[in-house]
Amino acid sequence: MLPTRIRTTLATVLALSCLSAAQAAAPTDDPQGMTTRVAACTACHGKQGRATPDGYFPRIAGKPAGYLYHQLVNFRDGRRQYRPMTHLLDHLSDDYLREIAEHFASLEVPYPPPATPGLAATVLAQGKALVLKGDAAREVPACVRCHGDAMTGVAPAIPGLLGLPRDYLNSQLGAWKTGQRHAAAPDCMAKITARLTSTDITAVAAWLAAQPVPVPSKAVERSALAQPLPMDCGGVQ
C-alpha cells in the first residue's frame, strides 16, 4: 500500500485535475491565474516545483522548458506511465502544456543540500566513472556528453541530472531499461539503459544524487558543449 502522504497527494491531484481542465478554457495571461492552474502540479512536486522529500516527485522548477513540455506531452500521450499524471493532462492542449512548462522553467529557487549516499565507495566510484567517462566497450556515452559538463542540462530540451532524489533517478533509469518509460523516437535513453546493468543504474543514481548543485544551476546553451551529441535523440534538435 502507498504511504499515507502519497495517497493523500494523489487524491488532491485527482480533485485539482477538474479545476485544471476548467482553467484550460480560461484566458492564460493572468500571472495570478497561473498559480491556480499549477496547483495540481505543486501538490505533488512541492511549493514552486521544488520537489518533496518523498523521493518520487522530482523537482521541476528551473528545468529547461522544452524538456518539461516534452514530458507533459509524453504523459498525456502514453509514452510515460503514471495514471494521476495522465488523468490530469488528458484533455489539455499543446499550447496550455507549453505555458505550464515555461512557467516552471522560469523559476529560480535554491536547491537543498544533497543527501548522504550511504553506499560503498566502490559503488559510487562506478557511478562517477559512467557519468563522467561512460563505457566505450559497451557503447555507453558519458552522461556529461548530453547533459553538460556541470550536469545542469542543455537548453532547450535536455534536463539537468543534479538535485534529484536517488530513488527517482533509480526508478526512471530502471523504467527506461524495462520499457515502462518511452520518449519520442529515436529513444536514445532506452538504447543507453539497455546496455547498463542494474548495478550500473544503482551506482549512477547514487553518485548523481550525492553531488551538490552548482550556482548558477540553469541549463547551458547547446554551443557550450565541447563535442556534438553522441547519438540522435527524439525531441532534441
Structure keywords:
237 residues, mainly alpha, Cytochrome Bc1 Complex, Chain D, domain 2, 11 helices, globular, disordered N terminus
Describe the protein's topology.
Blueprint: H1 4-23, H2 31-37, H3 39-45, H4 65-77, H5 83-89, H6 94-105, H7 121-132, H8 144-147, H9 166-177, H10 188-194, H11 198-209
Helix pairs in contact: 1-3, 1-5, 4-5, 4-6, 7-11, 9-10, 9-11
Shape: globular
Q: What is the percentage of strand-forming residues?
A: under 5%
Main CATH class of the largest domain: Mainly Alpha
How many individual domains?
A: 2
Average pLDDT = 87
CATH level-3 fold name of the largest domain: Cytochrome Bc1 Complex, Chain D, domain 2
**Count the helices. How many?**
11
- Structural class call reads mainly alpha
Gyration radius, rounded: 18 Å
What is the H level of CATH, i.e. the homologous superfamily of the largest domain?
Answer: Cytochrome c-like domain
Q: Compute the number of strand runs.
A: 0
CATH architecture designation of the largest domain = Orthogonal Bundle
Regions with little confidence, pLDDT below 50 for 5+ residues? 1-28
Task: State the order of secondary-structure elements, H for helix, E for strand.
Answer: HHHHHHHHHHH
Biggest beta sheet attributes: none
Ends apart, CA distance between termini: 41 Å
**Helix-residue proportion:** 40-55%
Write up this protein:
The chain is mainly alpha-helical. The protein folds into two domains: 4-105, Cytochrome Bc1 Complex, Chain D, domain 2 (Orthogonal Bundle), CATH 1.10.760; 121-224, Orthogonal Bundle (Cytochrome Bc1 Complex, Chain D, domain 2), CATH 1.10.760.10. The chain has helices spanning 4-23, 31-37, 39-45, 65-77, 83-89, 94-105, 121-132, 144-147, 166-177, 188-194, 198-209. Helix 4 (65-77) crosses helix 5 (83-89). The chain is globular, with a radius of gyration of 18 Å. The model is unreliable at 1-28 (pLDDT under 50).
